[in-house]
Amino acid sequence: MTDTSLADTPKARRKVVVVGAGFAGLSVARGLAKADVDVTVLDRHNYHCFQPLLYQVATAELSPADIAWPIRHVLKYQANAKVLLANVTGVDVANKRVVADTVTVPYDELVLATGATHSYFGRDEWAAVAPGLKRIEDATVIRRKLLIAFERAELADDPAVREQLLTFAIVGAGPTGVEMAGAIVEVAKHVMPSDFRRIDPRTARVILIEAGPRVLPAFPEALSAYTQASLERMGVDVRVNTRVTNCDATGVDLEGGRLDAATIIWAAGVVASPAGEWIAAGRDRAGRVQVEKDLSVPGHPEIFVIGDTSAVSREDGSPVPGVAPAAKQMGVYVADVIASRARDAVPPPPFRYKHQGDLATIGRKSAVVKLPYMNLTGFVAWLFWSVIHVFFLIGVRHRIAVAFKWVWDFMTFQRGARLITDQKDQI
Amino acid sequence: MTDTSLADTPKARRKVVVVGAGFAGLSVARGLAKADVDVTVLDRHNYHCFQPLLYQVATAELSPADIAWPIRHVLKYQANAKVLLANVTGVDVANKRVVADTVTVPYDELVLATGATHSYFGRDEWAAVAPGLKRIEDATVIRRKLLIAFERAELADDPAVREQLLTFAIVGAGPTGVEMAGAIVEVAKHVMPSDFRRIDPRTARVILIEAGPRVLPAFPEALSAYTQASLERMGVDVRVNTRVTNCDATGVDLEGGRLDAATIIWAAGVVASPAGEWIAAGRDRAGRVQVEKDLSVPGHPEIFVIGDTSAVSREDGSPVPGVAPAAKQMGVYVADVIASRARDAVPPPPFRYKHQGDLATIGRKSAVVKLPYMNLTGFVAWLFWSVIHVFFLIGVRHRIAVAFKWVWDFMTFQRGARLITDQKDQI
After folding, report:
1. DSSP assignment string, A227-250
2. What CATH number has the domain bearing residue B307?
């Protein structure tokens, strides 16, 4: 355990500690670049991950490094910021210190932006057989499962075993579920066929299971209908109003019966990180911290909770969604609050979320986009989606590399990252 | 266990089984494209790895997928070849069957091309603290160790601890050791400095330890001298005539004394894969199988051993080196032998290795190249090295992606794959 307070920080400047370097945390740190404060960013990973493209790592299109960037590299020119690799385990609220495995860091202002993880609604034993998709490691686990299923099917003689190996069940039809279903069916039907000799990968079944009445529940109904029709045309078996009652190593039990599937992917629910427990704050059922209008914690104006760990409402009472633009807006806002305190200025007015739209890609040449004044579907939406996502990657190098891979693989029906790594005990 | 003999293979055609899809095995399979045989390639990985660039994955320049390609994708258009993901555990020589974890495959002709791994000269306990560099997983393990050393140094308060964390010991000064030493010192001096606040990465020490009298012992003496001088100018501490007597978690014991180093990389020795044991063949001290002039095993004209698993001599009695061109030449030759048998033709004359040269890169703008009629050093050698390596990558997509990353990172002093993944229990 190390106390960094004495060694690094001149007495006079306020110490701002940001836990988590996702979209929210990084926005706070960058937003404080010109403020007269010392910023310390703690994260258990050394990189910022561009989560919206995680599904492309999981489906062998991109490499992990294409969507990740070292946090300290992002902040290298920001002299008032430092980055520490540390796994935070708690907060000593009384003494204003963040406690991590490798370090203890005192703060004047603390920003908790530790995100969310998948929720199995109390059935945590499903995690082992139905991985979710929140971190780089999740994506490589899913990639491995996906690719090994085809390899094992090629080796199998029993038709029932082959069929089970070539069945992919995706639970939850939000954007992640839709994107995974579309990408997997394309891999099976366009990328794999000529590579195999004994199986026909085009016979693979991709089943998208949604408990609610429609896919993409947060989108307008017309876009949900369009998405479901598109997926079905691509060969995805979409089952709405279908609840999963159990997951095990060989398949899922649905309300309507059993589905044998070697690969199950969980895209059904999220639960907030345990940051709310660290500070013993009031939380909703998903573990999100109920915050004040300036995103601080009731009774602790020096602690802010933002991003997917925080429960914030829009003006109409509906919740602010767990998307990257919302996380960034909260980060920018809290940086503004802290900066105004540092110079004894009037604090900004209460946080207001500005919804910019919703995007989901369905597959090759197809996406749905909801903008404030218009909806896009099909190829135009897909182009819009692609440009937006390349634009928001960090750094020109990543933008060029990802754009090149997309264009190349679009034209050749390839996937460039079909690696089964670290496969011990997997086959 | 599955027997694929009945299901797939028409009776008449000879069954050729190739174990290992490195340079040697893949050359056999491709060389048999037009032969009237059935080829089955078995590998425990689903990809062919371009080993000469592994050190660039280990030093965070390239992603694993940049230097790997699915074996079945490489052979997708070769109708007489199939690929099975299988971990071979032995050969039933009497019944002509290869035994693997997932499958048993009968053969008429068997080619063993299972490569080599690092040798710790009987001190296998060093493997845990001094990883070698033969597989993709080795490269990501070393990358993680390398990057975590800097992260932990940034967190450390004790100057002695910082110094130990920023000391990198590389054991063995063949091409891999030289390339690792050059790449690590460049990462420390050019890539890292502005990213850190508390440590100065330029103070990192990189020590290249060689038991023999000079670096790159297989190269002409002038190139060894040039390489050592270049490395020393870059800041590498080169210690020739220095033997390692012990490795542990905190450093290495040298004949001259103790060296505290958090990161130890093993590039000192190789030992052949256990393929020689599977067939109970005569082997040299490094486990390499002694083969006939047609690369078949004495007493077993139907079994060939090629690549790093085989001990082959040149005309002057010196051993054929363990490099990619040698493996490829053996593969092409054995394909020729098998094809001529299949059409009852005269077998080709005994295998003759044609040495094309030696290459090693030292760092940014510097390499050494020995060609039959000339030697190159410095920038020209470095350009030659770069072009050759891009050219030999499989597929235009990989060539463009790697060339782009090299040009970009050359100009910007970046490294594009600085990811610490799967770090459980590592910090």
Report:
1. HHHHHHHHTEEEE-S--EEEEETT
2. 3.50.50.60
